[in-house]
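Cross-posted from the bioinformatics board.
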Amino acid sequence: MTDNFQTVLAAEDPLATEHVAADMTQKKLNDDLLKMISWPGHVWWTVFIIDLIILAIGGIALRNEIVLGLGVGGWTRPVMWASYITNFVFWVGIAHCGTLVSAVLYLFRSHFRRAVYRVAEAMTVFGVLTAGLFPLIHVGRPWFGYWLIPYPNQRNLWPNFRSPLEWDVFAVTTYLTISSVFFLVGLIPDAAAARDRAKHPLMKLLYQVVSFGWRGTNNNWKHYYGAYIFFAAMATPLVFSVHSVVSWDFAMAQVPGWHSTLFAPYFVAGAIFSGVAMVINLLIPIRKTFKLEHIVTLDHMEKLSKLVLLTSTMVGYSYLTEFFMAWYGPSKLERDLFWYRATGHYWWAFWIMFTCNVIFPLSLWFKPLRRNMRFLFVLCLFVNVGMWFERFVIIVTSLARPIETAATVYYKMSWTEAAVTAGAFAWFFMYFLIFVRVLPAFSIAEIKETLVMPKRRNSA
Amino acid sequence: MIMKLLDRLANPPEGKFHGVMGVFLYVDDAADAVRALRQAGHARLSVISPVPHHEIEHALEQGPSLVRWITFAGGVLGFTCGMSLCIYSVISYPLVVGGKELISIPPFMIPAYESMILLGGLTNLIAMLALGRLPHVQGRAPYDPRFTEDRIGIWVPCGGEEAVKVREMLRGHQAEEVRVHE
């Protein structure tokens, strides 16, 4: 009995080949996917330079904040977790979808993931790298960031392991490590394929290192898939635990609008929602630019859009449940807070959130719209705007109107925070732009497994 | 100079091989050849392919990978280390926070759980590399770039009279190419 889950899957399940063009051969697949790795053209360089300019502006703003102090941010006591923690939660959320697509759908034998999971995984790794910046920026003295990590020291002081903030350190660092390992392990056979075609010695050496000198022997494959299923099995609970832990940063505090057992599933659904929307936003231009519509087909995009629709309904249900519980529950503070969210100073942010995350995605009930790439792209941009505002609404409204309502303040984002926020997007896209040109952005080996293999008995 | 160095690093010199390499296009031909070679007593053969093939795996009669047990041990070690760290920290510096017990198991479960996944994942990686004999610095069989495209290679380490027999056997199973390395 073999433990090679992947090949058993392809052999036993005819659905495995349903998304692949009938005339696709193994060699053509290599040709089509490895052509992405080439010296970039003018469009790529223009986008990359604009990206670097935005990143530099963000970097200058950050330098300003480090030199002049956190006062240059727009925080007003008691709104001390303003845009930076909004950004942190947003980027952790974005990072979630990659592992969902690569690990959870792998365990559920959902074959459409094969064509899209590498982009989603890369997005995860770059998303966590972006998210990880914000707690460090937010503490004001990023060079002391290592204090968050438990390490033996002369005063025998340890972090407080009962605090959700320390749980977050464990959750986010574990997530970054495991998702990076999962991403790199997935790359091994494809990096070997890139190595075998690379002309430049530097690129050849890079792929040789990334592929660990992979040969594709039966022994390599046996242990590769033996381990891969365990990466998936371990990454799956991580998907659900990490954003649950992030939600407990809020839910453990006795702040109106935060102290709810709903937060963990609500945050996980929201994370998957925004993450899938971001994957769609990344995949649509990639498949168009590199003419990969026959590999990332409309069927794949439609299935992703169904995931957006599903998670949108879960998020919408959570919004309504929050209001219902506030109305039904005994706490007047909670009721007042939710009324304030929808009608108070930040009513505009609340309604942007609700419209983008609940109303607009309802259009995905219609099949022609799910298969219209322009529409889907714009819709997913709105979803990401809505999801950024969701975190803003949760954080800022609850802090701006504390239990002592006399302390209510109005928080306005400063230019420094806006520049750092824009810089974070540029930081993420910088990695992504390099990734699509240097590493195989689609899993050659896994897509190849769905092709009909040449057999003499069949051809005879 | 630098380019030469890079080139040398990227293309490490192949060792000397003794055996026969057969290159196949058809999966069923390759699986039949593997079966025949194993019946003839060539248990040390290896198959090189762009993707794993179920038929060939069956012909090779490979057992399950041992990775799972190493990963399990890593997970158990991770949980133990995470929980021990939390308990040790409150014993070595007793400080009551928020009126909670010093050793508060429910909140400690979270760092322990994350440590379990972290160490489980890392041992999984190490086990995969060690058992799969990666990184592959110097090949144990001749290599052809077509093996990451669409061809399947069967390498049988042997020499002399045996190599001639293996060559004929591979040709008999419709190998596209057969090369004898002496």
